């Protein structure tokens, strides 16, 4: 546990583009903030379970290995699960500064939603390093914590990389290729239809074998694997955007048979769609 620690930087806020307001972790009890909090907050759930409640939104359950990025001045409350299980070990860091708005805008797709963090241990270690640094409260801490909170934001983005709305980075890692770009656009436009590799290859002027080889060299996965990942990421988006949507309906919107969708979802995330909807997000594995 890291007891609540207030960062007392005097007037350093004026010269620091980013600064930490407070940091810590503890067994979280119920807390109500009717007027929100004056700084942006990052919460990390290490063990146990709890729920965030934000007016006008559905409840946000947090399970081990998940995070929540909460903008400043958003009224909210949060409380542990009352089921006699593990205590809710919740880590937190609040930050602000002139660079904070642009940083939050960069992470816009991550705010106000609970997401699994594939690099959770890295994030927790960085949280602990912030706590220990601020506890020293020396001149060095002023500047070093500013660097570290920025690095923590980069770690957060690195674990999620939400380049497109559907979550997939379509930028080839090798040299740019207009034909591949066209193929990726075609896949994104028709991922919920029956896409034959031969048709995609023909549409961009390649043989099947050459297209397959170029695609793997540029993206590190086969076209079929890419389409499956796109469908799986889209399913997570549908579950989040349409609370209560049936698993069968999601499968239909993805152009997949329900049984095949369930099997692929479990293979990808380590949990079934129904378990995911019941709050098992913290146990989801990252895509490989």
UniProtKB/TrEMBL annotation:
Xref: InterPro entries: AraC-bd, Homeodomain-like_sf, HTH-like, HTH_AraC
Identification of the protein by name: AraC-like DNA-binding protein
Gene Ontology molecular-function annotations: DNA-binding transcription factor activity; sequence-specific DNA binding
Key word DNA-binding present: yes
Positions of the HTH araC/xylS-type domain: 181-279
Keywords, ordered alphabetically: DNA-binding, Transcription, Transcription regulation
Gene3D superfamilies, per database record: Homeodomain-like, Regulatory protein AraC
Keyword Transcription in annotation: yes
A Pfam short name: AraC_binding
């Amino acid at each position: 546990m890291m007891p609540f620690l207030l960062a007392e930087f005097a007037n350093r806020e004026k010269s620091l583009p980013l600064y930490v307001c407070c940091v810590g972790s503890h067994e979280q009890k119920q807390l109500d903030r009717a007027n929100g909090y004056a700084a942006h907050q990052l919460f990390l759930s290490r063990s146990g379970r709890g729920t965030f409640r934000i007016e006008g939104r559905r409840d946000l359950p947090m399970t081990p290995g998940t995070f929540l990025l909460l903008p400043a001045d958003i009224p909210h409350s949060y409380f542990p699960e009352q089921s006699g299980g593990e205590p809710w070990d919740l880590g937190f860091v609040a930050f602000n500064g002139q660079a904070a708005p642009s940083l939050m805008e960069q992470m816009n797709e991550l705010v106000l939603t609970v997401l699994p963090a594939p690099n959770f241990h890295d994030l927790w270690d960085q949280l602990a390093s912030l706590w220990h640094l601020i506890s020293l409260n020396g001149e060095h801490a002023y500047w070093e914590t500013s660097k570290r909170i920025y690095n923590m934001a980069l770690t957060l983005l690195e674990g999620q990389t939400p380049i497109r709305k559907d979550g997939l980075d379509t930028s080839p890692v090798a040299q740019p290729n207009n034909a591949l770009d066209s193929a990726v656009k075609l896949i994104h436009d028709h991922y919920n239809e029956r896409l034959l590799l031969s048709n995609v290859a023909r549409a961009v002027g390649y043989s099947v074998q050459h297209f397959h080889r170029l695609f793997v060299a540029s993206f590190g996965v086969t076209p079929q694997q890419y389409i499956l990942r796109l469908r799986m990421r889209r399913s997570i988006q549908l579950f989040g955007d349409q609370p209560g949507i049936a698993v069968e309906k999601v499968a239909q919107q993805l152009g997949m048979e329900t049984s095949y969708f369930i099997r692929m979802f479990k293979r990808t995330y380590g949990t079934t769609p129904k378990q995911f909807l019941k709050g098992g997000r913290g146990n989801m594995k990252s895509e490989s």
